[in-house]
Write a structure and sequence with these properties.
The chain has 856 residues and is mostly beta strands. A hairpin with a 5-residue loop joins β3 (48-53) and β4 (59-63).
Length: 856
């Protein structure tokens, strides 16, 4: 895949600032650099540069090298006053030096006068801060004031759209989103790396963030990196979106807010009032529906508070957000489908007291759960259906039914952060954030008649994240940042109508029961996709070191990630029953196993009056589709990366950015290989044991060792055009695999043995007592699933033997020009070449219709 982008940023005002300097810093810290000269322009070595936080009082001290250059590394974000002094010279002070993440703000050349007189220079924000003079990296930084005032209602990823080369993917998301899903420089929306404070915030299964950070008041800045990133950054081929949280200061400060959105002043849309859509207008009141504005209320409230615990030493910050959304709710019906109502269920219990089908209807049918007040549809007329168990005949009342659901989303999000300046050489940071974002009941995930039958899940989204680091200054030119992060996110479509039916325990999940004709089906398995979900657990260790030597600013380090991300999902593991007439066939009855009608009559000629799905259910005559395999897939994976970056200032107006990154991703798919080999070589193999294991198991894949990723760039400021900077760069990046690919393999042959078989109610009895659930059906019926065959004749999911990480080459060339003191124009060409991208290929497509349409 090749994509090319040409974009123009004209008059890039202070709304969004592209970072202006080198990026050899910690991911949540920045730096300050400069040089010191005397009044004649001669360099002053061993001068002292001290940066003092204007809001925290924290100090950082370095000395200039032999060339009069200094750099203060790993500086927390904020504004600083830099004081420069040297023996035999007066001091100079530069105030309001703004530090942003991943960048070095240069104070330029500072001249000291001989003697003891001090001088002060005040630096204000200007267009010069928008010009990037030392790197090829394309980065957009949105500061706290801009984040706080942006009209995005917590949809933080929407801010990425202000970055050049970023577009909305609209319906082509295919991943989690915290707002819009976006593509960068033509890459997929899944190819973006989400971070909080420079630490992992990714859903390893489908991509996108796992923690949906909404509290705009709690963000110090949002950093969006899109092109030619330093070797320090990796994991994905697209953008890096980094939410950096606020910290406390020496002053107590806080915010509070309430945002109300409601329908009380809303008007109707065209589709909600147009007569052609069935709405009553112009005084017409018959054969139409009255127009009503759908009810909607959303309240977002919360706040932040921070301040000193120990002045100049220890600071705390916390935030909270609550978001409650209420809509008018919906009443969903069986859409014409009929089922025994309260009178009909009483008749069944009386006439067929010990029948397992009656027990199943009572335990798992549409009226088994009272949520939503299931009832008959007003204005409809009950009907009588004649049924039999082969001995007794009864007339059972059936009706259409309905269920009313509330439409509610209740979200809460909390954060706490500590920053501790232990000494001039040691600084610590600790953060914990929590989110609970349920949607209960999530009836919208199923068809209306399915939800009305009581088959709907809840959506549970609970996240815990911890971030910590320790920054140590070994010498004025050597610093190190050791970091740890823990992420646990549970994203599950479970519970709902059966609260105990979860991704970790499916014992009580009910089977789907189809009755055919005008009779309504029911059961949790009706939806086919539930329960399902995943628990994402990641332990992340990072180490970043910075060395400044002469004209070189070198960063190097690595990262180790230990992932344990179990999935819970197996279609048809609860079983899908079809009791419609003639649904079950066997060798003796190729046109359908007939129902058994009592000799005493009551079912009419040839049993026609009793020829319905309720009779099949009572007699246990039907077809069962059942899958045997593991509903829990405990994926595990260890990844690591190493990098080295040298930002080499060749001359005063030319900087080369030279980096190399290596990434290794473990093969989580090999768990499936081990499990399928164990199954096939054990006492109960699914498939014909005479077949080779290569045909009956998931293959074992070697690790991909090719992810060697160079980063090359430059920034050149021509002496004849001091207001212009030329940038260029080339980089290679790789995407990790997505576990959703492996879930597809884990739920199909050869990992799963799924089959359909006929139940005649006599020799093959498929309806166990105690209801139809995962536990009862698996125990009673898994023995009937055909075994000993060839998985290749079934629908199978496989990956190629050379399955590997996709890679993307990105190259760019651009110009920045300071048009006005506070405005910069940026023109840049960006191209990329992506290869080895993940794709799904149908290896056995149905081309019969094409052959018929084009016979020659």
């Amino acid at each position: 895949m090749k994509n090319f982008r040409l974009y123009l940023i004209a008059l890039a005002l202070i709304l969004v600032g592209v970072s202006q300097n080198s990026f050899s810093q910690g991911i949540i810290t920045g730096g300050i650099s400069g040089s010191v000269v005397d009044s004649s322009g001669a360099l002053i070595p061993n001068a002292t540069a001290k940066a003092t936080g204007e809001s925290t009082g924290a100090t950082f001290l370095v000395t200039t090298n032999g060339e009069g250059f200094f750099q203060i590394s790993d500086v927390p974000l904020g504004d600083y006053t830099v004081t420069i002094s040297a023996t035999g010279f007066g001091s100079a002070s530069v105030s309001h030096v703004h530090v942003v993440a991943g960048n070095i703000n240069s104070v330029g050349k500072q001249s000291l006068a001989a003697g003891s007189a001090a001088q002060t220079v005040v630096v204000e924000a200007s267009g010069s801060e928008l010009i990037n003079t030392e790197s090829s990296q394309v980065e957009t930084t949105i500061d706290s004031e801009q984040v706080q005032s942006a009209p995005i209602t917590g949809a933080m990823d929407n801010l990425a759209l202000v970055s050049p080369g970023v577009v909305n993917t609209h319906a082509d998301a295919n991943s989690n989103t915290n707002g819009i899903n976006f593509s960068v420089n033509g890459q997929r929306g899944r190819s973006n790396n989400s971070e909080i404070d420079g630490q992992t915030n990714n859903d390893t299964s489908i991509g996108g963030p796992s923690f949906f950070f909404d509290n705009q008041d709690a963000i110090q800045e949002v950093q969006v990196l899109t092109t030619d990133m330093s070797a320090q950054y990796g994991r994905n081929m697209g953008a890096i979106v980094n939410y950096i949280t606020k910290s406390g200061t020496n002053a107590f400060h806080g915010t509070g807010y309430e945002i109300y959105t409601g329908s009380w002043l809303s008007s109707l849309t065209q589709s909600q009032k147009a007569p052609q859509d069935g709405w009553c207008t112009g005084g017409v009141t018959t054969d139409c529906a009255p127009t009503v504005v759908p009810k909607f209320v959303q309240n977002n409230w919360g706040g932040t508070f921070g301040g000193p615990i120990l002045k100049d030493k220890l600071w705390g910050f916390g935030s909270t957000l609550w978001s409650h959304t209420y809509e008018g709710g919906q009443t969903l019906t069986s859409q014409g489908g009929l089922f025994p109502d309260s009178n009909g269920i009483s008749t069944l219990k009386s006439a067929f007291a010990n029948n397992p089908a009656v027990a199943a209807i009572t335990a798992n049918g549409p009226y088994s759960t009272t949520v939503g007040n299931p009832s008959t549809v007003p204005g409809t007329t009950p009907q009588l259906v004649t049924v039999t168990d082969g001995t007794t005949v009864a007339n059972v009342e059936v009706s259409q039914f309905q269920r009313t659901f509330p439409d509610t989303i209740l979200d809460q999000e909390h954060l706490g952060r500590l920053d501790y300046q232990l000494s001039a050489k040691d600084r610590f940071y600790l953060r914990y954030n929590y989110q609970n974002n349920p949607y209960n009941p999530a009836f919208y995930l199923t068809a209306p008649n399915v939800a009305a039958a009581g088959a709907y899940p809840n959506v549970n989204g609970i996240s815990h994240e911890i971030g910590a680091d320790w920054t140590h200054i070994f010498t004025p030119s050597i610093t190190n940042q050791l970091r740890y992060a823990f992420q646990q996110s549970t994203i599950a479509f479970e519970g709902g109508s059966i609260s105990s039916c979860t991704i970790t325990n499916q014992a009580t999940c009910s089977s789907f029961v189809g009755l055919g004709g005008s009779l309504a089906g029911y059961g949790y398995g009706f939806a086919g996709a539930f329960p399902q979900g995943r628990i994402i657990k990641v332990n992340q260790f990072q180490d970043n070191a910075t060395i400044v030597k002469g004209r070189h600013r070198m960063t190097f380090g690595g990262e180790f990630d230990s992932q344990h991300s179990p999935w819970g999902y197996l279609p048809n593991d609860e079983g899908s029953f079809n009791f419609a007439p003639n649904a079950a066939i066997n060798a003796a009855n190729p046109n359908g196993i007939p129902f058994r009608y009592p000799a005493a009559g009551g079912c009419g000629a040839s049993g026609a009056n009793c020829d319905n799905g309720l009779t099949g259910f009572l007699e246990g005559v039907g077809e069962l589709t059942l899958a045997e395999g593991s509903p829990t897939i405990p994926f595990k994976e260890n990844d690591f990366s190493l990098y080295f970056q040298d930002d080499f200032k060749v001359t005063s107006n030319l900087t080369l950015n030279l980096g190399l990154r290596y990434e290794f991703y473990g093969q989580a798919i090999n768990f499936l290989h081990n499990e399928t080999v164990k199954q096939q070589t054990g006492s109960n193999p699914f498939w014909n044991t005479s077949l080779p294991l290569s045909a009956t198991t998931i293959p074992s894949l070697p690790s991909d060792l090719r992810n060697i990723e160079p980063r090359i760039g430059f920034a050149y400021q021509p002496s004849f055009a001091p207001k212009m900077v030329v940038h260029g760069g080339f980089s290679i990046n790789a995407d990790p695999e997505f576990y959703s690919i492996f879930v597809n393999l884990a739920t199909a042959a050869p990992a799963v043995n799924s089959g359909s078989f006929a139940c005649d109610g006599v020799t093959v009895t498929c309806v166990p007592g105690g209801g139809l659930t995962f536990a009862t059906v698996q125990a009673a019926d898994s023995k009937y699933i055909p075994t000993g065959g060839d998985p290749r004749i079934n629908p199978t999911q496989m990956v190629t033997s050379n399955f590997h990480n996709p890679q993307g080459e990105t190259y760019s060339l651009g110009f920045q020009y300071q048009v006005l003191p506070s405005a910069v124009a940026d023109v840049r060409y960006v191209g990329n070449h992506t290869y080895g991208n993940f794709q799904a290929v149908n290896s056995n497509p149905d081309i019969l219709d094409v052959q018929k349409a084009f016979p020659n």
